Amino acid sequence: MPRRRERVRAGRGRRGLWWVLVGAVLVAGGLGGIAVWQNTYALREEHVTLRHDGHRLEGVLARPPAGDGPFGLVVFVHGDGPVDATHDTFYRPLWESFARAGYASLSFSKPGVAGSEGDWLEQSMDDRAEETLAAVAWARKRPDVDGRRIGLWGASQAGWVLPKVAARDRGIRFVIAVSPAVNWLRQGRYNLLAELRRDGADRHQVEKAMRRRETTLRLLRRGASYEEYRAEVGDSADISPGRWRFITANHTSDAVADLRAMRGTPVLLALAGHDVNVDVAETEAVYREILPASTLRVAHYPDATHALVDHDTESSSLRLTATAVFAPRKLYAAGFLDRQTRFLRRLGAGEGAA
Fold this sequence. Notes:
Layout: H1 2-38, E1 44-52, E2 55-63, E3 71-77, H2 92-100, E4 103-108, H3 125-140, E5 145-155, H4 162-168, E6 175-178, H5 184-198, H6 203-221, H7 226-233, H8 241-250, H9 256-261, E7 267-274, H10 280-290, E8 296-305, H11 311-315, H12 317-326, H13 336-348
Parallel strand pairs: 3-4, 3-5, 5-6, 6-7, 7-8
Antiparallel strand pairs: 1-2, 2-4
Helix pairs in contact: 2-13, 3-4, 5-6, 6-7
């Protein structure tokens, strides 16, 4: 009898374990299904290529889910870093919001990223503007694109590219600028001090960082080589030779002249309340001073970070990952996606800036 009871208990234990495993599989399958569903967008994506400056660029054209067009088009201009066409899928909620307004979206991976040829660190802001103009010209040849309704979307470093493109191509219908900087050197100083405050740096740490910054600026002004930079600054783990060349080529960037030249283009300026990268107060002041009030709309997102992600979400790696997997549209600050949809719809209705 004791052995029989042991066999009965063992059988029950195995059956219990079986149901636990079945339950785990069902839960995992259910969560997997939710993740797939939440990451499925009402879009038709087409892989496209562009030849520019001797290189092939790989990209994505995301059209609304139905119809032959011609559709209005939003051409994406990336911020800093090695960004691919989808920005690691981060752009898809934006593309979907534009599709709701009847617009397609076009985005190319940066040179040297995700199959695109070249090296983005070899580009100046003028180079990036010429690349964007080439993308616009390419799009105007497509029968499914309405060449009279092409505009730009760009974030952060794109603040030095968007105005150049809109100034050089007066056929650009609109600009959506997200967390754009105005002056490279002032932006760098603001970012440095904001990060030091965020990290709780003491007075000595701040002074040391500012001395290093002044040394770096002196080297940039005289066009110093990377080797000279390393010799004077010492620790250069955060700056590669390519990055130093990129900074050397672009550190004098300032958007003011190009903003003046693009006056009259409808602009939606999106600014975050927790931006440690860009001084949004300066950006707003400059845009309001230069651009006509009739064509400029400013949208504030007090609870957002530089990337227009909800601040509380970005502050928790667990919450950020869970949101990205199971509710990617909620990564962005409340109202951000809808505001852009309304902006484009009102442009289509002939109401100018939204």
